[in-house]
C-alpha cells in the first residue's frame, strides 16, 4: 500500500514541477541586446576631429577639401555629441559657450539606426530629420557623411570624423 502512495506522490511532484517550469516560459522575453555598433555609439561622447567636403562637378571631377579645425569658432570645437542607450541624444556645448543664452546643450532629441545600422537618424519621423550616413564606426572613431546637396551644378557631401572621449 505504501508503494502506490509513493507513486502517486511522485507523479504529483513531477507534474507540479512541469507546471511551474511551464509558467516561466510564458514570462516576458528578455529585451534585445544592443548590437556592437550601438554599444560603441552609446559608450562615450563624440568630439569633432576633422571636417572635409567632397565635391563632384557636373563633369564628374571629384575634389576633396579638408578644412582645418582652426577655421571653426573655438566655441564649437569643444562640443560633444552623446548618443544614449535609451535612444535619446544631446549635443552639449563644452566649456566655451557660443551664446550665453544656450541652456548648456545645443540640441537634444531622439535617435535611431536605419538601413542596417548604416545611418543615424536624429529625431526620426520628424520634419527635417535627415540621416548621418555612417562611413565607419569603431569604439574610438565615428566617421559620418551628410546627405548629398547641390550648388551651382556640383554635388557636395560633408564628411565629419569624431573621436570618442
Shape: globular
Number of domains: 1
The biggest beta sheet reads:
8 strands, antiparallel, barrel
What Rg is obtained from the alpha carbons, in whole angstroms? 27 Å
Question: N- to C-terminal separation?
Answer: 75 Å
> Any idea of the CATH topology?
Lipocalin
Structural class: alpha+beta
Secondary-structure arrangement, i.e. CATH architecture: Beta Barrel
Query: From N to C, what is the helix and strand string?
Result: HHEEHEEEEEEEE
| Tally of strands | 10
Helix content: 10-25%
Mean pLDDT: 86
Unreliable runs: none
Please, how many helices? 3
Structure, described:
The protein has about 160 residues and is α+β, with helices and mostly antiparallel strands. It has a single domain (about 35-165), classed as Lipocalin. About 20% of the residues lie in helices and about 40% in strands. It is built from three helices and ten strands; from the N terminus they run H-H-E-E-H-E-E-E-E-E-E-E-E. The longest helix has 24 residues, at about 1-25. It is globular, with a radius of gyration of 27 Å. It starts with a helix and ends with a strand.
Essential attributes:
single chain, 165 residues, alpha+beta, Lipocalin, eight-stranded antiparallel β-barrel, 21% helix, globular
